[in-house]
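Cont'd.
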Amino acid sequence: MTLAELTSRAAAAAPNPSTKLAIRDVTKIYRRGGKELTVLENFSLDIAELEFLVLLGPSGCGKSTLLRIIDGIETCNIGQVILDGKDVTNTTGDGRGMVFQSFELFPWRTVLANVAFGLEVNGVGKAERLAIAQEYVDLVGLSGFENSYPHELSGGMQQRVGIARALAIKPSVLLMDEPYGALDVQTRDLLQDELLNIWEKQRKTVIFVTHSIEEALYLADRIVVMTPRPGRIEQIIDVPFPRPRRDTLKSTPEFLEMRRSIWSTLRKGAHV
Amino acid sequence: MASSAARSGRQASGQKALGAAKGGAARLLISGYGLSMLSVVVVLLIWQWGSSQTSGLLLPPPSAVLGKFLDPVWFAALMRAVSQSLVQLALGFALTLVIAVPLGMVIGRYRVLREMFEPVINAIYAIPPVAFVPFLVIWFGLFFEARVALVFLMSFFDVLVVIIAGARDVRRPLIDVGRSFGASRLQQLRLIVLPSLLPFFIGALRVGSARAINGMITAELFFAAVNLGAMMKRSTQQFDTAAVLSIVLLICLLGLIAQSLVALIERRLVHWHVRG
Amino acid sequence: MSDKLRRIVFGSLGFGIVLLIWEIAGRKLGNALFAPPSAVALEYVDLIRQGDMLRQLTGSLQQMVVGFGAACIIGMPLGVAMGRSRVADAVARPWVSMFVVTSTATLVPLFILILGTGFALRVTIVFLSSVWYIALTAYNGARGVSPMQIAVARSFGAGVLQTFWKVTLPAIYPYLLTGARIGLVHAIRAMVLAEMFVIIGYGGLIHRAGLQIDTAPTLALLITLMIVSLLLNGLLGLAGRLLAPWYEQQRVTT
């Protein structure tokens, strides 16, 4: 398929007005040293309002790249990202809040100032943004650590700051790029429960990237299983477990069975 | 395997801590300033004893150097000279900072500029700045302007190289955070690039101030001898080694004061930065 | 375009731009103020033909290498000892931090009084100006050796000496190399400084060239100095890669 054909296809696809976020025919090709690597090809997906969507796949399947394209910090060669009916392709800001894998807090800012960052960038006055930031510091359970610096916090606490920073701008969609990938299993489990708690309190559209099947099943309404080179949708799974979910869910036969079945799907495309 | 290694590592550090605690009074001497002080005192004593065995003309005893340094007339002359030297130091180093910091940031932030000018800068950096003295004489004469120029030249490239390295190494993911929240280029510069650069700026101050002091005294010796340089030349001609050493001591103190000032600024400005 | 090609193309472009600006400025200002590259190139051929430049250069470099070699032999073990032993650190620290901030230029008149103006002076000045940087870089490396790596060696039953030779020293190695490269820069600076002060050797040559009306000879001498400095630095890097190829990509911060 030629580039021109792909472009015309992308333009032809009209977004469905009932969807929150529409990804239309997104293609991403890296060029390095004269070589081309297609990371995503013709990727389309609709995400509904208040949906908790998980992008699941092995490393290199383009799930993080897709998330970064949705956020706008990475550009796509072809395709569109439409948020709330507005074309936001290859732009940043505008209602998207991102939580990064290695936290990426600003080491020179206190917890409170880190959380207030997005508001500051968007021109919110000092008193107001600090008051809002305080709310979100409280929400993620870091009251008392407002004036600590990131290097004084544990990994789990740092990622809570990362989440508060993204939530503080009241994003229309929350993007989370393997947010617990750098944490140990216990912290990870705790933060998953915390995230679900926060999410029950403040319902939001979430797109969450992970390579952990268990994490995906525990958190998601819907799981998009991706396979690599180029990244495409292998399978879309509706997760039937009722909410609010508790940790005990992870050891139920239904959960384990779904986990096994997704694993066998992923395994087919796995190259070790 | 890995966990057993970790365990033995913990054990080793635990034993070390225990051993340190047992030391008691001896520990104060070993781990603190005690031993450093002792080292200074012992060397000075050996030096004092050594020069009392010889004529003392070649290397006067430390008591003579200190006596000269604290001699009221000589001390007043030293202070007068150094206060004038500091003017050219401040001017030359300020010039370095004003030019090298923005220039280093621009070169460091843009890959093309870096690839174009880093090799050239490294090449010029390889030339000892003092070798430019004949040029500075042609352009600036033998007096104040030439001295300022040498202070500038001797500190400029050291500062530039550090700032370029800092600007190059601003973490890409942190810039991405800024972009993700919709920060403009100016906001990225102000809120992310500049704070990231602070530790490097401190590093540049540390290296640059030492080089600038070096330039200050080099200039006074290589151009028309004035201030401290003149005092040094005169003392050399009179074979007054104690006087020469007292000037060396003053320059050394000046260097130590500059380093302490930088450390003070560092504690104020970048207390969030964990070195190493 | 590959990264290597990019660097070569843009690097040459950078040199080209600087040379062009220099040529234009040089022609405007004239040889007496700032000789253009074209004039310097002509002068260069002359200087090489006369042979004085290269003869003085070899002589000066030999003395520099003696001082620099001594600085490595003393500075490296000193720095490692300071980094691995608190006692050594406490004993040596006040001296190292005092000498490292003391300008080399102030030491020259002092050592002229003590040592005269010959071989000993230049070797001593070169030694004193580079040894502290070599020691401090080695110190940083020795301080930073990962306790985990040492623990691994210990858990395999390695003794204290074995651990030092097989783990600590290889880990410090890149710092020793970086220290040597930093030390070399200071050694060359000190060599030129001392020689310009007593008007001898290559530095003396620069001093005398500076007295002429034409700036071309001075510039030619500076360019040789630049080439030599870059060559020696490259040589140290090459030696490092041959001795320990596994460290090629490692970057050392000081």
